[in-house]
Amino acid sequence: MKHIIRSTTGALAVAMIAAGCSTAPKASDVAAAESAIGNAGQAVDQAASDPHVAKYAPSELERASASLDQAKTAWSKKHDLKTTTHLAYIAQQRAATAQQLANERASEEVVRVAAVERDHAVQMAAARRPATPGTEVAQEGLAGFASGKAKLPPNSARAINDLATTLRDHPDSKVVIEGHTDNVGSPTYNQTLAMKRAEAVRAALLRYKVDPSRILVGAHGETNPVASNDTSAGRRENRRVDVTIAGAESMAGTSQMGSSQGSTATTSSGGGRKGQ
Fold this sequence. Notes:
Blueprint: H1 11-18, H2 27-48, H3 51-56, H4 58-78, H5 81-128, H6 157-169, E1 174-180, H7 187-207, E2 215-221, H8 232-238, E3 241-246
Parallel strand pairs: 1-2
Antiparallel strand pairs: 1-3
Helix pairs in contact: 2-4, 2-5, 4-5
């Protein structure tokens, strides 16, 4: 070969020589290929260095690496700039997808672990309780939220006061607060609204100086109705917050408002993680 086009790194020119090319591509094509492959390589390397990717999205990372290798081959053997840049772009996008999926799956794992820990804490507290009737907290007041609203119902003051009193009288107890909605609106919207309703009860307890570490907050959205959503009365009943008190041996029992059965809630304690 009489002429060798030197790139910044020279890697592609060396590859051309190794492939036995008789005609060197244009300098602009070499620069474009180098840039595309370089950017894709950086994206793949960044994804590979992310421990979440290795754990949660290894197959996506493998696909990104495979596309990068194909881009390098397309250039070194055929000098096909169009195919090279296309494959390099795919590699870059797949690397970005691997990181995005890994982060999402890692977040889901955090939520799942938090839910398991919450359930375990409640189960352990129940196992330590003596088999005596639960202390009743007023059930009126934490159902009947206005449609689409998270503001506590007007008649909730007594329920909140009774709940705060119970927690004060049983300092070793914790409270699990779970928000619910009717089926009006999208599931995503209702999940968020349910959490806001649970947080409203939490905020009310904080005003009674309840220790935030004793409060676990979750949301079920529209997934756990206690009445039919086909009627206005049923929907009103479903727009509620359920409360469960779990304590140590000094705790008289479990107190509930509504029903706490159904799908696992996302939890938070104090300023910790919350579901979305």
